[in-house]
C-alpha cells in the first residue's frame, strides 16, 4: 500500500514536471525568430506598374478579400480602391487568425517596413520582426516583376490607422505554432518576369502562385498537407461547403465546359451567397488570364469526384 502510494506520488510529480515543461517550451517557442534573405525588390512610381499591381491585388490574387472588411465589390465596381486595413478573422480549429493592416500607415500598417521587408513576407514567409507568417498566401514563387507591381500598388494605399486584433490561438494552436509551423519559401527558381499569354504554362503559374486554386480545390489535411488528387475537389471549407472537382474528368463540375463558358461563368461573379471562393475578385481577371487558367485545367490529370458520405 505504501509502495503504491509512493509510485502514485512520483508519477504525479513526473507528470506535473512534463506538463509544466511542455507548457514552458511551448510558450518559449511562440515567437521563434527565423532568418530569410531580403529580396532586392523596390516599389516603382511608374503608373503602368502601379496599375498592374492594382489589377493583381483586386483580381486573381484577391488581396482585398482577405485584407478588407469593406463593401469591396461595390467600391471596385465604382473604380475606387479598397482600404486594405486588415482585421479579417479566419476561424480555424487552432483558433482565430487576423489578417494584417497593409495600408501605408506607419504605426499599424506596412508604412514602417522597407520594401525588401515587405517582399520577404510574401516570398519567404517571415515577418519583419523575424516571426513566422501563417501560410495563408501562395505568393512565394511570384516573379520579381509581379512582386514589384503588387508592392508598388500597396505603397499608393492611403494610410488607415487601425490596429489588427491580436491572434487568438487555443492550446492546440499554441502547440502547432511551437512545433509544426515553419516559414514557407519559394519551391522553384524565381523568374524575373513571366509573360502573360493564354497558354497552359501561364495558367499554371497563375493557379499555383497567385490564385491559390489548388489550396481550395485539392483535398488536404488541417495542417495543409495535400492528400487528394490535384484539383479533384473534396476539400471541406470552414463553412461546411465542399469544393468541386475541376479536373477534365467526366465526373468533374466543369466537364464539357468550353473556354467561352468558363469565361462567362467567371464574369457572373458570386452566385452562391456564402461561397468561400472569391468570385468577386476573380470575375475581374482579364480574358488572357481566364483562357490561360482554362487551358491549364485541361492538362490536369482527370480524377474522379469522391462521393462524400452523409
Ligand atoms: C487567403 C487570405 C489572404 C490573401 C488572399 C492575402 N492575404 Fe495577406 N495576410 C493574410 C493573413 C491571415 C495575414 C496574417 C498572417 C500572420 O499573422 O502571420 C496576412 C499578412 C500579410 C502581410 C504581413 C504584414 C505584416 O505586418 O507583417 C502582408 C504584407 C500581406 N499579407 C500582403 C498581402 C498582399 C499584397 C496580398 C495580395 C497580393 C495578400 N496579402 C493576400 C491573409 C491573406
Ligand atoms: C477559398 C477557396 C477557393 C479558392 C481559392 C478557389 N475556389 Fe473555386 N470554388 C470554391 C468553392 C467553395 C466552390 C463551390 C461553390 C461555388 O460554386 O461558389 C468553388 C467552385 C468553383 C467552380 C465551379 C463553379 C460553378 O458554377 O459550378 C470553378 C470552375 C472553380 N471553383 C474554379 C476555381 C479556380 C480556377 C480557382 C483559382 C483561380 C478557384 N476556383 C479558387 C472554393 C475556392
Note down, in words, how this protein is organized.
This protein has about 300 residues and is mainly alpha-helical. Helices cover about 40% and strands about 5% of the residues. It has helices spanning about 1-30, 45-60, 65, 70-75, 115-125, 145-155, 170-180, 200-210, 215, 260-270, 280, 285-300; strands at about 90, 95-100, 170. The protein folds into 2 domains: about 45-180, no CATH class; about 200-300, no CATH class. It starts with a helix and ends in a 12-residue tail after the last helix. The protein has a 3-stranded antiparallel β-sheet with strand order 1-2-3. The longest helix is centred in the N-terminal third of the chain and has 27 residues, at about 1-30. It binds heme C (2 copies). One heme C (HEC) binds near residues 213, 272 and 276.
